[in-house]
Amino acid sequence: MTYKTLTWEVADRVLTLTLNRPDQLNAFTVEMAHELIAAFERASEDDGVGAVVVTGAGRAFCAGMDLSSNGNVFGLDESLSPTLADMRERLDDPAIRDGVRDTGGRVTLAIYNCKKPVIAAINGAAVGIGATMMLAMDIRMASEKARIGFVFGKLGIVPEACSSWFLPRLVGPQQALEWVLSAEIFDAAEGLRGGLLRSVHAPEELLGAAQALARKFIAGRSPVAVALARQMMLRNSAQPHPIAAHQVDSLAMFYTSLEDGKEGVAAFLEKRDPNFTGKASKMPSFYPWDEQ
């Protein structure tokens, strides 16, 4: 598969996915949205990919939506008058999917559904969708030169890309509201203080640090167990009662104990490295549990 707005590079089972419109500061387009969705769906099923690192080419991570396109810059069909019922009942109808649904949200849902750990290596400006896109990623690491902004209020629009679900969970409602309502651009130190970022790095060290962390997540690990653990943490934390987590935990423990779990126990007892054979492309029958 070839991409016009991205580059795809795999080394040691770590996929580095680079937003690649450097002359436009990697500004987001509908084409980039479609390519990102396809790339995350591909990575999720590609057993040659263990983890994903997302970064930007050149000076920026992603400077927000490309506002230079003609017509509705968000790619929306202004002839429609959609309702909440349409969103609930016709979500995948082509008219709603292509003419109403927020493209950033479709990207973050693809990231959320991915069976591989995803790390953001924020190398520069991350504004608008550049900021909200990374919220669906598991770890956010930034360059000292990074600048982040949830600037929607300055444009008369609202936060998108499911960020009203992700951001308060990451940093708490008070911090999320301050950043969104002020619409100010802040530096990496503020992102670290506010709990958005895991760590801040010298620009030349950022990508290597993100890739090293990705390798730590997958070396000597069962791809099936990693995929299940990621989805359990993301999905179960939003359940109203821990019994829902117990139900999924029990099935996940049952099925992993029959396969890679046996090899893991044997390797531990024999004091050797495990040889896991499970594949994330072939998950246990109860997955994904929220679609059953």
Distance between the termini: 31 Å
Task: Give the number of helices.
Answer: 12
What portion of the residues fall into strands of 2 or more residues? 5-15%
Structural class: alpha/beta
Give the spatial strand order of the biggest sheet: 1-2-3-4-6-9
Number of extended strands: 9
Order of helices and strands: EEHEHHHEEHEEHHEHEHHHH
Helix content: 40-55%
Net shape: globular
Q: State the low-pLDDT regions, or none.
A: none
The profile of the biggest β sheet is: 6 strands, mixed
Rounded to an integer in angstroms, the radius of gyration calculated over CA atoms is: 20 Å
Mean pLDDT: 96
Could you explain the architecture of this structure?
The protein has 292 residues and is an alpha/beta fold. It is built from 12 helices and 9 strands. The protein has helices spanning 30-45, 84-89, 94-99, 103-113, 129-133, 163-171, 173-182, 188-193, 206-218, 223-236, 242-258, 260-269, and strands at residues 6-11, 14-19, 51-56, 118-122, 125-127, 139-143, 147-149, 185-187, 199-201. Helix 1 (30-45) runs parallel beside helix 4 (103-113), helix 6 crosses helix 7 and helix 10 runs antiparallel to helix 11 (242-258). The protein is globular. It starts with 5 loop residues before the first strand and ends in a 23-residue tail after the last helix.
Layout: helices, strands, pairs:
Blueprint: E1 6-11, E2 14-19, H1 30-45, E3 51-56, H2 84-89, H3 94-99, H4 103-113, E4 118-122, E5 125-127, H5 129-133, E6 139-143, E7 147-149, H6 163-171, H7 173-182, E8 185-187, H8 188-193, E9 199-201, H9 206-218, H10 223-236, H11 242-258, H12 260-269
Parallel strand pairs: 2-3, 3-4, 4-6, 5-7, 6-9
Antiparallel strand pairs: 1-2, 7-8
Helix pairs in contact: 1-4, 6-7, 10-11
